[in-house]
Amino acid sequence: MREFPITHLKLVAVLAVIVVMLWLLDLATDSNNIPAGQSQRQSLSVPIPQAENNPPATTTSTNPEKNAIESDQHMPPPVRIKIRSGDNLSSIFARNKLSAGDLQRILSTEPAKILAELTPGQLIEVQSDASGAIKSLHYQIDPARTLVAQRTQTGFSATLVEESPEIRLESLRGTITKKNPSLYHAGKAAGLSDSLIMELASLFQWDISFALDLREGDRFSLIYEALSIKGEDIGTGKLLGAKFINLKETHTALFFQNQVGAEGYFDPSGQSLRKAFIRDPVHFSYVSSSFNLNRKHPIHNKTMPHRGIDYAANRGTPVLAAGEGRVIKAERNEASGKFIVLQHGEQYVTKYLHLSKFRRGLKVGSRVEQGQIIGYVGATGWATGPHLHYEFLVHGVHRNPRTVRLPNAEPIPAGELGAFQIATQSILASLNAT
Ligand SMILES: [Zn+2]
Fold this sequence. Notes:
- The longest helix has 28 residues, at 3-30.
- The strands form 3 sheets. Strands 11, 12, 13, 14, 15, 16, 17, 18, 19 and 20 form a 10-stranded antiparallel sheet that branches. This protein has a 5-stranded antiparallel sheet with strand order 1-2-3-4-5.
- It is built from 8 helices and 20 strands.
- It has 3 domains: 36-162, Nuclear Transport Factor 2, Chain: A (Roll), CATH 3.10.450; 166-274 and 412-420, Nuclear Transport Factor 2, Chain: A (Roll); 286-399, Glucose Permease (Domain IIA), CATH 2.70.70.10.
- The chain is globular and about 85 Å long.
- β3 and β4 form a beta hairpin.
- The protein has helices spanning 3-30, 40-45, 55-58, 89-95, 100-107, 183-189, 194-203, 417-432; strands spanning 79-82, 123-128, 134-142, 145-151, 156-162, 166-175, 219-229, 232-246, 249-257, 263-266, 286-289, 309-312, 318-320, 325-333, 337-344, 348-358, 367-368, 373-377, 387-394, 397-399.
- By secondary structure, it is of the alpha+beta class.
């Protein structure tokens, strides 16, 4: 009986040794999961994209300190650089005493061309070996994209590692108030980004004049894709639906992409929100003088009809083509200053006066798309200050661009209406619930 414990102890000792060996083996195997670039062995054996599977090494933007790559005894610690304004690669490499020759070799790889466009705030991490040769370089372009360059036998190989963001739906709503009388201010107060405000304005630009028609109590709501990577918000994706109640009239926009990939915004009955003309050829301005055939002219002080609309806006504000068409005049005269005349099909002509300049390359005969920039607001000709004078002619007769009936763009074809309704019903229900 006495010998049993001894045998037992021996067994325990042997087992303990085995366990320790297994543990050490395990450690060695585990190190294979450390992202490439941390040791000489890793940089050769680990496929580059796997680096993205290990959050601590590559998502350096949230907490760079936590993401330190541990160096082994043969490697100096990695150099971590935050891009500052005015930085370029040569200055960064010189400042950090990194190999300029290796930089050239990295830059000669195709994906590394993107390194030329450094933006302040981005992060670069460089791992060199004891001799100063660069083993790897991680350049985080944005939360979704990292350039990973690795030394190979012959030089460097580089890969752009992209991470697809998680998408969740979010909604926001806002109201036009005395304090926030413009879409921009009400949108900001509601938490919309600048780009969402611009999208909302462009969605309804055919139906609502954001320069003239907004009233206190007008309301809007929208549903959009919020994008994040590893819990970090990186911006917004598609605007899926929006509702705008303007002057007690409800306008609804639903995003739809058909089977061949064509996409657009439609009202719940499948009518396109697009019209052949947008109402206002400048965004975010205000109307300083309306269409008025009995107006007293501010300079000449006598009754002179005002056959267009004046949009007061800062000099340089982009002026947009109200519809698809062709440039039939782009010239200058004493009264109109620099002006552009567009022909749209047979019946329609639009005119844009007092411009500071034309879009580069724009000339008589140029084709323009709806919403395309054709020139910039100025005060050339008879103008008391920077503004756009805009005219709309139907069959050669001046009409009020604010009230003229505008032709529609194509609706959803009857054969796709069912698919459209199925695809948009939940967004529509959510919008209607707001
Ligand atoms: Zn005018």
